[in-house]
Amino acid sequence: xxxxxxxxxxxxxxxxxxxxxxxxxxxxxxxxxxxxxxxxxxxxxxxxxxxxxxxxxxxxxxxxxxxxxxxxxxxxxxxxxxxxxxxxxxxxxxxxxxxxxxxxxxxxxxxxxxxxxxxxxxxxxxxxxxxxxxxxxxxxxxxxxxxxxxxxxxxxxxxxxxxxxxxxxxxxxxxxxxxxxxxxxxxxxxxxxxxxxxxxxxxxxxxxxxxxxxxxxxxxxxxxxxxxxxxxxxxxxxxxxxxxxxxxxxxxxxxxxxxxxxxxxxxxxxxxxxxxxxxxxxxxxxxxxxxxxxxxxxxxxxxxxxxxxxxxxxxxxxxxxxxxxxxxxxxxxxxxxxxxxxxxxxxxxxxxxxxxxxxxxxxxxxxxxxxxxxxxxxxxxxxxxxxxxxxxxxxxxxxxxxxxxxxxxxxxxxxxxxxxxxxxxxxxxxxxxxxxxxxxxxxxx
Length: 445
Fold this sequence. Notes:
Elements: H1 8-19, H2 23-27, H3 40-56, E1 59-69, H4 73-104, H5 110-122, H6 134-152, E2 168-173, E3 177-180, E4 185-188, E5 197-198, E6 211-216, E7 222-232, E8 241-246, E9 250-254, E10 259-261, H7 265-281, H8 288-322, E11 325-329, H9 333-336, H10 343-349, H11 351-364, E12 368-372, E13 398-400, E14 407-409, H12 410-428, H13 434-444
Parallel strand pairs: 8-11, 11-12
Antiparallel strand pairs: 1-5, 1-7, 2-6, 3-4, 6-7, 8-9, 9-10, 13-14
């Protein structure tokens, strides 16, 4: 089990020790004459084996620890200027690169925009850019370069301009902040006092942040995110295996029959949100009352998102801790969200976020996450005999197999099929397809 989880380099070393006998092994006596003392060959393989286990069980990951902080009036003014300058530089560089391509068919990269930024800061009209730290401005150019890289790779849309009404952020590297690990204080550039941070969870000892990101959400809350490299110890190996069926009435249905209900956080706050939005629509644009109403609407949205995020984090952490292999179906949430009547409920349940949490937590803690094909008929297939129905309406939640007369709960049956085909795919190392999966599962059963 541990050998299969070894990194490729260490696995090759261990295989070399196993298949290539050494001089000591050739001259060693037969096994019946050795007694209880271990041979040098076994000691040598044990060393490589422990090296592989140590490598597998001490992985370094980049972690982002996010905390809320409360700036004073002076710090809030500095951050407001920094957010505005970062937004201005990002939009200016985006316009510069866009015009250069469409007017002169010329591509401008990060280095060209960085040189142009130096000239821009020397002009009298934009001399106010020197009032803030230069590091967040350079990081804004790097973020734009990364956005174009993702666009040309086909992973994202064309970069868009940033507005002052959305979330604001500024990134500081090690040269633009001072971190005191003893008393845990953070002081940013252009500031004379440290930030008042609320330490909601312990900060890892013996680590130094490489990047600090300051952000302000639409509700006016300030957050600081520390990016650092931390050692993550995978969880102990367990025999648990689970198949998950995602739904709207129940967020997750396990193959054991357990159903985790849908809290429907948006539906709980929908009437309150509607009243706040109607109040916002009656306010005069540009007035302070409209800004207060906008913040009230934003606080409701933030409350919904925070409660949903907390629920999904707790559920995914529990599943990762209890099971070694997690099998889940692949869903095209963006396509399903275009449903004329179920779009709001699909957005509220958070399937995409839940699967994303399972993915990175499984990678951190040594678990296996198997995603089966989206076209596999998990609900229409009988997990007892393998019979597949021609069609099954969405409103039918229970059905009886016409071949073996087994009574099925639709979601529990789907979860059991997902687990069976996921284990088959994990053992064969292939992508699950509907036709192939039916044959594989039938042969297994």
